[in-house]
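Reply to dn_fold:

You asked what the input looked like. This is it:
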Amino acid sequence: MQDLTPADALACDPQLAAAIRRAIDGKTKPLGALGRIEDLAARIAALKGTTEPSVETCELIIFAGDHGIAAQGVSAFPQAVTAQMALNFLAGGAAANVFARATGVDLKVVDTGIAEAIDHPDLIDRRMGPGTADSSQGPAMTPGTLAKAIAAGRALAEGSEAHALAFGEMGIANTASASLVIHKLSGLPLDLLTGRGTGLDDAGLTRKLAVLERAAARTGALTAEQALAEYGGFEIAMMAGAMIGAAGLRKVVLVDGFIATAAAMAARALEPGCEPAFVYCHRSAELGHRAALDHLGGQALLELDLRLGEGTGALLAWPLVKSAAAMLREMASFESAGVSGKL
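and this is what came back:
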């Protein structure tokens, strides 16, 4: 199977689509009995270009980076937590580590630009700087730095041998960045996109919204590149690049929560052909995620009131993705099993 160039659409040709539908309907079950798992299996088969897709391995890449806008008090936690949590991932103690072990997923951690540089033999260094600039005052990063971040993410995805890639993030104030990026890309109002993040109280939420409105007022309509440079985080930009790179190789892209959805929205705008590779894994409790998914036309597999990030929702959805592909590849048909079909 030929790899896709970034600009290629992953559209399934009508003959393959018909073959996939026949394969699913011919399995030993009533028509439609597996519900949305059948739809998921059909999407994976179309992405892989075969009625017997193999999606056996998954890797989670967690991108960690800091945000200058944190100085405006938009988070309930101090910026030092980004470095501390990155070390926690590397030590295997976070929720993402637990879920990754439980689901058989390899986990990697990437420093995209943590304010406090850390040293660990397993940390992947792709630092763009000690955190972005304060986007309420000016651009978060230069266009040149943005291009480097996108390219770095794409290279990481292209270097993975896994059949599916999940992407997580860690960065104090990254819900603020995600809200601004989604606002500029979608036109959705900031009051619909601004949530409590790490647990802001009512006063903190009011302050956060005021900061974001002031930041957004600095610019008018923006392209995807401009929105990421003005308001994105290094981790969001790198994740968008990784999503594009993974889609170009026909890997299943497991889109996690609110911040990952901001990266997915940016990736779709940068390379419209990449979207069919995306599986929206869960709808988080973060205000704005529902609106963002509705704007994208994405139906999440799970709704568990998660608001953690780290790729946790993607990890929990991974068994569903793996099972959907296995159903197409391994489940007997009425003909092969000698089972009578519907009269």
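The CA atoms of residues 306 and 318 lie 16 Å apart.
Hope that clears it up.
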